[in-house]
Amino acid sequence: MKDTIYKYNTPMRIALLADLHDREFGWITDSLKAHKPEIICIAGDAVHRVDTSTDGLVIDQTKFVLPFLKACAEIAPTFMSLGNHEWTLCSEDIAVMADTGVTVLDNSFVRFRDVLIGGLNSAGVTAYREYRKGKPERYPDWSYGDRPDATEPDVSWLADFCRQDGYKILLSHHPEYRDRYLKDLSIDLVLSGHAHGGQIRLFGQGLFAPGQGVLPKYTSGVHGNMIISKGLANTAGMVPRLFNPREVVYIEPV
After folding, report:
1. Cβ-Cβ contacts under 8 Å for 94 (sequence gap 6 or more)
2. Can you give the three-state secondary structure of the chain, one letter per residue?
3. In the chain, fewer beta carbons within 10 Å around the N or the C end?
4. pLDDT, the chain, mean
């Protein structure tokens, strides 16, 4: 566990969190209280795997997510985008999460002071919503791995986001989306996670990341206008995180 600090051309001090995966978070809030960021940005995957065959809200199956969000919101204004593990969340789940005081950016953006903050959903969120259209069941029988018709993120709203005046921050869980969808857009700062630092790091290189495969390009650090968190949890089963501590990222103005 470590704090990582980057200097960047931002108008405010930002804490970047990603990939909590419903784990204990006391060390994270201790770090946040010590560093006093002006805003907290959660780039997806606060939730971990859930059972979609049961009744009730998905968020009720989590242990730490709601207390974590509430604790963050009590420290600083907090904004969250939806990652691939949030694919089952329905509008009621998102409303409960928003009740903690966190602004959930569901393919949407808000203005905070003179800054525009947007959140791009993972493709899996879009895929599941498309699959559920017209189906009476709350949770139709579908696995995230099935990846039905809609397999691309919905980037249609980004044109309006980019037309706005002000410094623009986009929370995009997947760093691989930058080259595919974002590189030609007028976005000042993209904040990502998902790669878990490449899980095992040797000589500064991550070995594997979902969506990028072996020897991935984007696992941590600053890449042009994108900053990537190595994440807050290990969720790779029997594969340990090696030479790859979990981190809270702080971005400070130059």
Report:
1. 104, 106
2. CEEEEEEECCCCCEEEECCCCCCCCHHHHHHHHHHCCCEEEEECCCCCCCCCCCCCCHHHHCCCHHHHHHHHHHHCCEEEECCHHHCCCCHHHHHHHHCCCCEEECCEEEEECCEEEEEECCHHHHHHHHHHCCCCCCCCCCCHHHCCCCCCCCCCCHHHHHHCCCEEEEEECCCCHHHHHHCCCCCCEEEECCCHHHCEEECCEECEECCCEECCCCCCEEECCEEECCCCCCCCCCCCCECCCCEEEEEEEC
3. C
4. 92
Nearest to 192 by CA among 226, 239, 236: 226
Asked whether the beta carbons of 129 and 182 are under 8 A apart, the reply is no
Least Cα distance to 18 among 207, 252, 248 occurs for 248
Average pLDDT over residues 164-190: 97
pTM above threshold 0.85: yes
Per the rule left: phi > 0, alpha: psi between -120 and 50, beta: everything else, 18 is: beta
Confidence of residue 140 (pLDDT cuts 50, 70, 90): low
| Mean per-residue pLDDT, 129-143 | 72
Phi, psi of 62 (to 5 degrees): -90, 155
Q: Percent of the chain, pLDDT > 90? A: 75
